[in-house]
Design brief:
nine-stranded mixed β-sheet, two-stranded antiparallel sheet, 11 strands, alpha/beta, UDP-N-acetylmuramoyl-L-alanine:D-glutamate ligase
Length: 271
């Protein structure tokens, strides 16, 4: 019997308050039976959707931090928001220096609603294209898929034909599999998975937009994949978990800035 616990290097910022980034990834991966090994790119008192927050950039520490892991093997490497071209390059170098059998999952956090984040530059976009080329799975939203492929953004309600075009262009960059998230279709949300053939997962859309759901989704998919699940199964379970937890959070009239109250429902990930 193999009792080995999968180990994932999680590269993202750490927000002390507000459910997102490493705070979310550590909780979710642990429940799934995966050892999360965090690599903080920055430390924040609260995430940036709050009106005030403390921020400390950790770029200068990242290379030395990761160099100390040179003898450690990882079953997966999962990267989220990267705040500079230098951070993107450091993560790229880390991936290239690690075991080629590691599952590489990249959430290319670059923008939303048709706009690139204000901190992003053209040079960072080029760096991100290079980074996603080294990935086994990338998980962009529609905006990010359009940025990476230089296709025009026409809104979050796109046809499956356009989603397939985006996915094929993303695969041509070098990544092996793509999950395009957040495609709107009436009262539903579609997540489009493509790895040579496509799968579409449809779930009812909740009527509020929460901070941190992208981090939740990518963390669940990463954790399930390193545990041996298929991409299709991982996407389906991630979408359903977030829908159920978000629905309960809305029922509780909670502040959406604080994120989805997923903690009471983490056990559902094991069902």
């Amino acid at each position: 019997m193999n009792n080995k616990i999968p180990r994932v290097a999680c590269i993202n910022d750490l927000s002390g308050y507000g459910r997102c980034s490493l705070t979310t990834a550590i909780s979710i991966l642990s429940v799934l039976g995966v050892q999360p090994c965090p690599v903080p790119t920055a430390v924040l008192s609260k995430h940036t959707a709050f009106p005030t927050f403390y921020f400390k950039d950790l770029t200068e520490s990242m290379e030395e931090y990761l160099a100390d892991w040179s003898t450690i093997s990882f079953d997966g490497i999962y990267s989220g928001f990267l705040g500079s071209l230098e951070q993107i390059q450091i993560v790229y170098n880390f991936i290239k220096s690690t075991d080629s059998n590691s599952l590489i999952v990249i959430d290319p956090v670059m923008g939303d609603w048709g706009k690139m984040y204000s901190t992003y530059t053209v040079e960072m976009c080029r760096g991100m294209k290079r980074l996603v080329a080294s990935a086994d799975v990338i998980i962009p939203n529609i905006t990010e898929a359009c940025i990476l492929t230089d296709m025009p953004y026409t809104g979050d309600e796109i046809s499956l034909e356009v989603a397939e075009q985006l996915a094929k262009k993303l695969l041509s960059i070098g990544t092996k599999s793509v999950v395009i998230t957040g495609i709107r279709q009436g009262d539903n949300i579609l997540n489009f998975s493509y790895d040579g053939e496509y799968h579409v997962d449809k779930i009812e859309r909740v009527d509020k937009v929460f901070s941190g759901t992208g981090d939740m989704f990518a963390s669940i998919v990463c954790g399930l994949l390193v545990k041996g699940n298929t991409l299709q199964t991982s996407v389906k379970r991630a979408a359903r978990f977030i829908y159920e937890a978000a629905s309960k959070t809305i029922e509780n009239n909670s502040d959406i800035t604080e994120g989805v109250q997923f903690e009471p429902y983490l056990g559902n990930l094991l069902k």
